[in-house]
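Reopening this ticket.

The earlier resolution said the output was attached, but the attachment link was broken on my side. Pasting everything inline this time so it's all in one place.
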Amino acid sequence: MGWLNIYAAVFSEDHMSIFDISQRYGMQLIWILTAILIAIVILSIDARFFNIFANYLYFIILLILVLVLLFGVEVNASKSWIQLGSFRIQPAEFAKFTTALAVAKIMSVYGFRLNKFSSYAKVGMVILVPVLLIILQKDIGTTMVFSAFIWVLYREGMPGWVLIFFVFLVGLFILVLLFNKLTILAGLLILSLILFALISRKYRDTLRFSFAIFGLSVLLFGISEFFDLNISPYKLLLIPIGIGVPFALFYAFRHKLSSVLYIIFFFIITSVFSFSVDYIFNNVLASHHRERVNDMLGIESDPLGWGYNVNQSKIAIGSGGLTGKGFLNGTQTKYNFVPEQSTDFIFCTVGEEWGFVGSFVVIALFVFLLLRLIMIAERQRESFARIYGYGVVAILFFHVGVNIGMTIGLFPVIGIPLPFFSYGGSSLWSFTILLFILLKFDSSRMD
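Inline output:
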């Protein structure tokens, strides 16, 4: 299906043969045939090989990622490719399966438990090193894929509140971009006070503390206005908070309320994180990423500029209607209105030519694949294979969800492929390796 949609996305009447290797659809056939060969090789290898050599494969990819920084070529503002004659390969794609193997290796060691800081530090370091190297390549899309490993940790015993906190930080990042700092800080303070009241059930003390902080803020604001000190309300709220935090810590220790300490740390961490969002947004993200995020959030709009891709993609998908315009009959596709339509925006070809029905079938197939992989992961007898299996599920789920979300405007364009659909040898090979290693584990589980 991916091959046929690539053919439709870049179809040329001058090169009508789907086997024409001068065109992307002809080259994709070569990638598909080589991917089949890779799958056969993986299924021929002893499953223990991947367990024994997991760390070696991981460090080899890390070395290659370093070489990319030194000798790589830049494509679409990202220096993440190695040029080998007329052939380019993206090592960051292969870092996904090696990291999944390395995480599985660490977490499957006898006695490993996600109940202490050192355990999280080990797993975090394995994930963080390739992330930092890929960030240096300015490939933000691939970098974000590694966040999917949090689902692996959750499956293997990470407390649910950590996952909720992680999701909260993602939401907070978006809110900081939409609202001013005073609103965010006041919101975090109110949320922390509500949590304190609900957990400690000391409602009177909560009200007293709330009145003290906000009352002092109002008093300072009045003084500032009266003496024309020109101090921003945001800073005026910081002063009583700075005074109140030590008192809250003293209160927690005096009444032996460990839950209050957690709430204080929650407030401090989220406040510091909200302060850092502007720096991350303006210095870590490239300008085109910032523009796409702003466009998605409605902060800025440029339908003929940075928002052109998504705008045209939504037009293409919407124009498909219920059953689509038919194979090779997509007008948005045929006249190249959507850039990168054979790679990042391949799903809009599905939407335009096959309509809602075709889009539903493709999404249903991906959902079936993911559910099947979860079942396969769960029935593994060894924890190494099970953990790796959930790594496969997490990575594929992230790619599918984000890529389709990009094409319909629910997620900013970050440039990641749709598994087994988007054009490209590196992505197809990496997904093939990722998937067939798990299938090898499954075929060997009764040995």
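Reporter confirms the inline version is readable. The longest helix spans residues 346-378. Residues 105 and 384 are 6 Å apart (CA to CA).
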